[in-house]
Write a structure and sequence with these properties.
By secondary structure, this protein is of the alpha/beta class. 41% of the residues lie in helices and 11% in strands. The strands form 2 sheets. The protein has an 8-stranded parallel sheet with strand order 9-6-3-2-1-12-11-10.
Length: 495
Amino acid sequence: MRKSGILFHIACLPNDYGIGTMGKEAYEFVDYLKECGQSIWQILPLSPTSFGDSPYQSFSIFAGNPYFISLEALEEEGLLKREEYGEIKWREDERYIDYGTIYENIYIVLKKAYLRFIENDDMKEMLRRFSEDNPWVHEYALFMALKTVHGGRPWNEWDEPLRMRDENALRAAREQYAEEIDFQKFMQFKFSEQWERLKAYANKNGIQIIGDIPIYCAYDSCDVWCEPQLFELDENRVPVVVAGFPPDCFSADGQLWGNPIYNWQRMKEENFDWWVKRIAYAKKLYDIVRIDHFIGFERYYAIPYGDTTARNGKWRQGPSYELFSEMIRRTGKGNIIAEDLGIVTPAVRRLLKKTGYPGMKVLQFAFDPEGKSEYMPQNYSSRNCAVYTSTHDSDTVAGWVRHNKRGDNRFCREYLNVRKNSDIPHAMIRLAWQSTADIAMTTIQEMCGYGSEARINVPSTIGSNWRWRAVRSDFSAENADMLRRLTEICNRKEK
């Protein structure tokens, strides 16, 4: 069935508490999706954020972000009092997330909920069962407890016994920091509980959720600390090479992401168990999984650790279909989207075809006056793809238009059959919906016609990313009517 939906991260939801949560605002957004006639809600990674507040740089591939726990829901359970969180000034501007204020306050508030929680034996038993069912939470909770007692410093700056995971040191830490470890488990339990309820509500209302998983782990993560043998680290567990992207027309120095690179040979020897577990978990968490930077599985760019640019990196061969063959055999073939943007070589195309995964098309890349771009709908070779008006890493359509050359916008208006640049965002949505692609996606920013001020992320920059939020007036009935009717006439709504 042809489907369509909206890409909109939970953090961007409007409320009075500084950042979007899995509270009533999330349920209201599901209702809005239904009002818009949509069947998909795509979000960004749910993981706890680390450096730069990016959901693609996380402390864990399995854990959920405590920032997304609804404090109002905890109050309804009797675990919080309104004055314990309602009187905090969570933000200066309702349009932007103040991560510093959230970090300084959220754990104090959640600790109060935890202390009430552990007074109830039935609740403590639920936490015990959750920990049994999710064995990853034990190491994650220890990792985060150690980060807390080390003032947030990364694990590679801890004393050597803990940094190198000496068993005696770990055993002593588990005893010494038992309460903090249980607090970390409590936050994961509440996150999981609230997420499962929200997802069930979305599914009940005919909405599938596309979740996003990054290809790489952050160096300062539980994943690298716990299983260093799966990454290219030296004997002191310092990266040998890190990930990035080579210089191109957008960046003379390339992109230096800094993530440690996998030891693919070791992973192969272990039958890719780590990746199989990761995908299996993601498929339980979401209805559809988007794998970021799919081309990195065919070949990846390795930069010497310590370099300040990506200029000296080298391309290396990735695991290619060997990995996906094992993943498909053990987790099933469907419900995955491959983010295949970037340098798409013939080998990448062959890998995508062999897996059967739909790739991505971004319409902002389509407007080649010669009409030869593979992102132009008339050039789609298969319906098995997902088309986007924009993504979290690109500008909004209105911002993109504003930065285009005059001639490029002239061609864009001509192609879309509109007279004004301000008409382009909605015309781009129409083009995506009318395309042959099985999945069509847009954003709230496009529906509202917002410019670069509403952009989510500028790759390879830090300081102002991941901060934009919607306000309640952005979810207008007029836009809902427009999208619902477009979805009907383009046959993207189940009859």
